[in-house]
Design a protein that fits this description.
14 strands, Arc Repressor Mutant, subunit A, 6-stranded parallel beta sheet, elongated, about 20% strand, alpha/beta, Rossmann fold
Length: about 325
């Protein structure tokens, strides 16, 4: 990264903390604080002014630019276009926006830096955002602070699937604690003695689902094992499940549930029909175990619901939990 680009990023870090119309510190103090020459900072300021992030006023200083809002364009931020659940979510958002005469802007990936994301929001003068954060996002304090700042600038935000701590924003998603508590209660009706919960330990979603499982097990003597599937081969996870010899299996990660069941069914010395199974799966997928209880994630419906909430006239913060339908496929 060239020196002026480094300076530009440092200046943007300061812009994040200011509101439109507020001044930046004097240039001399920025030179001293940031450690760049006046020529290097001038080039950074020139680009940020051309991008309408900053505005110079002769004799007054440099200010965070005011912008006319673009209410017809909706910015959408999702973790990935490759994973099926996110692509389904995007389909629902696109369909609902199109039916309401609105346009969609897919916001840039922010895994390395928040600068392109912030620039895209400001340059396109967005006032409406739909965001599906990842667990990684919620461990990034800069990302959370940026969303709080955007909210303070009266940008309307709808959050999908994982709530952002302290953010005054509407939420569309699943009540994971309630859903998995009910799923667990259904599973233990048949007198199981031990349960394996499978999921990604680092995920905030898994933490919620695990809380539901534990809620249902309160006061019982049922033993709970946990298996982390983060960055592991499906075969290795299936082998670990087989070796524990459990009575019941709760699959807490929608993306891996189907593959894991197929792997277990393919093991010659393992009879999957002898254990109770409950799991969350993606929309239109089928858990290849006829006796399983499933919670189906309706991603397209969730995307549509997020747009409906965003376009409501009522600006008060609302929380909308989309209930997971408990499908009993047992025979």
């Amino acid at each position: 990264m060239l020196k002026y680009q480094q300076a530009k990023q440092k200046v943007l870090d300061k812009v994040y903390k200011l509101s439109p119309g507020q001044p930046l510190p004097p240039v001399r103090s920025l030179i001293k604080e940031l450690g760049f020459s006046q020529i290097t900072l001038k080039r950074a300021f020139d680009e940020l002014e051309a991008e309408k992030v900053l505005k110079r006023e002769k004799g007054a200083g440099i200010f965070v630019a005011e912008s006319k809002n673009n209410s017809n364009l909706v910015g959408v931020l999702i973790p990935s276009l490759v994973q099926k659940s996110y692509s389904q979510l995007l389909i629902g958002i696109q369909e609902e926006l199109s039916e309401n005469g609105r346009d969609l802007l897919l916001l840039p990936n922010h895994s390395k830096t928040l600068v392109p994301l912030y620039r895209s929001i400001k340059n396109n003068k967005l006032t409406n955002l739909i965001i599906n954060p990842s667990s990684f996002d919620l461990s990034n304090i800069e990302f959370i602070n940026l969303l709080h700042r955007l909210s303070d600038e009266n940008i309307r935000i709808v959050i999908i699937d994982i709530p952002v701590p302290g953010l005054r924003a509407d939420f569309i998603g699943y009540e994971n604690i309630t859903a998995f508590a009910e799923l667990t209660r259904q599973i233990i009706k048949d007198g199981v003695r031990n349960i394996i919960a499978v999921g990604k330990f680092e995920s905030k979603v898994y933490s919620s689902r695990l809380a539901g499982i534990r809620q249902a097990l309160t006061g019982s003597d049922i033993e709970l094992h946990q298996i982390d599937i983060t960055d592991r081969l499906v075969h290795n996870v299936a082998t670990e499940i087989k070796n524990i010899r459990t009575d019941a299996l709760l699959l807490c990660d929608a993306g891996s549930s189907v593959d894991l069941i197929y792997e277990l069914k393919g093991m010659a010395d393992y009879d999957i029909t002898k254990i109770q199974i409950g799991g969350v799966i993606e929309q239109n997928e089928r858990l290849a175990a006829e006796h399983a209880l499933t919670l189906e994630k309706q991603n397209i419906v969730m995307g549509r619901a997020a747009v409906e909430m965003l376009l409501r006239q009522d600006k008060k913060t609302k929380i909308s939990f989309m209930p997971l339908k408990l499908n009993n496929n047992r025979r």
